[in-house]
Amino acid sequence: MYIQTLKSEDETGNAELDNAVEIAGYSYDPNQDIFYSNLDPWQRSVGYCRLYDEASAPLGMILDCEPIYFEYNEKKWMIGLWKGQYDLVTGAEIGVYKEALDLDIFGFFKGTFYSAVSNSELLQMSYTLNKNGKPLFTREGEHWWLTGFKLGEFSQPSELTLDINITFPDVIMRDAFVVGLKNTGYADEEFTKNGNTISLIFDTPYTPQVITRTAATDWIIQKKNQQLCLQYQKITGPYNNVQEKVKAIEELAPNLYEKIVRMGKSKQLYEYKTNLIVMILMALTVTVTGILLSSHLIANSDN
After folding, report:
1. What distance in Å separates the CA atoms of residue 168 and residue 125, rounded to the nearest whole number?
2. Model confidence pLDDT, tens digit, residues 196-249
3. Are 260 and 151 in contact (CB under 8 A)?
């Protein structure tokens, strides 16, 4: 059963933060001290495009990205893997998407927009996020977007690994995903099959990373992220539970409190995504209109 609203055991104890977290599409796991995405957050309607990853670094998120592309039931699919530093939190994601729209806009973008899969297409998934070989947290469930974010934890993406298990509904989809893994660069010995379940470790990505990540920009952004985490740890050090920690942050560092409310892939990123979609669709409309107009003029000149 999926949580659509926060239950008492999934709350931080701070009413304002709980409300903000719920609106943002997340819940809180007090046992692991992490935040995670619900089944039906508003982000589900936004989908995925490779260009979205390009926006992450400029917005303070230094992430390793590994999109696995494959075809199943005559549709393009993408299972995305992410791990790294999301501003003030260390986190990881697995997302499951299906083809929504192919675009080819000359000089701007060529690729596929994907939509999040429907409830009937959810996959049973689990992962453990490790830092320098030691587990930070685990996540498990039937989902389209399995996430976890640990507040105040600073990490370099290279320090993190994901131990992943994904169970597919049939052997055909399993094998299609294996083809996608191999096309991405994974060798046979880098994943295992157990029935319809594929297990693998996401460490160093094979996919070329986004052009907005360079050694220089990573250093600058991560230096800022590290300072934020150190400030969080200094203020919350004397406290033992999230309620006290959040209260201290709200009182002593309002700037950090605002970042906590916007943790994970922030609304700013998704607003960028929405604007990007609108821009591309407008460009597509202009392109199609131009083609139709040119065809009309040519036809009239022939007459």
Report:
1. 9
2. 999 999 999 999 999 999 999 999 999 999 999 999 999 999 998 888 898 899
3. yes
pLDDT tens-digit map of 243-268 = 889 889 989 998 888 878 776 555 55
- DSSP single-letter state for residue 39: S
**Alpha carbon distance 173, 196 (integer Å):** 9
CA 81 to each of CA 11, 29, 201, 220, 289: distance values in angstroms, whole numbers, following the listed order: 27, 21, 11, 24, 37
- For residue 168, which phi and psi values (nearest 5 degrees)? -100, 155
Q: Is 92 exposed, middle or buried (0-12, 13-18, 19+ CB in 10 A)?
A: buried
Paired residues of 67 in beta bridges:
80
Query: What pLDDT does residue 298 have?
Result: 53
Strands (E), 52-179: 61-72, 75-86, 89-105, 109-116, 123-131, 134-143, 145-151, 160-167
Buried b (16+ CB within 10 A) or exposed e, 44-54: bebbbbbbbbb
* Single-letter amino acid, residue 93: E
DSSP codes joined into one string, 187-252? -GGGEEEETTEEEEEE-S-SSPPPTT--HHHHHHHHHHHHHHHHHHHHHHTT--SHHHHHHHHHHH
232 φ, ψ (degrees, to nearest 5): -60, -45
What is the average pLDDT across 115-126?
A: 97
Q: What per-residue string of b and e applies to 187-223 under the rule 16 or more CB within 10 Å gives b?
A: eeeebeeeebebebebbebebebbebbeeeebeebbe
Q: Which helix (H) or strand (E) holds 298?
A: helix 267-302
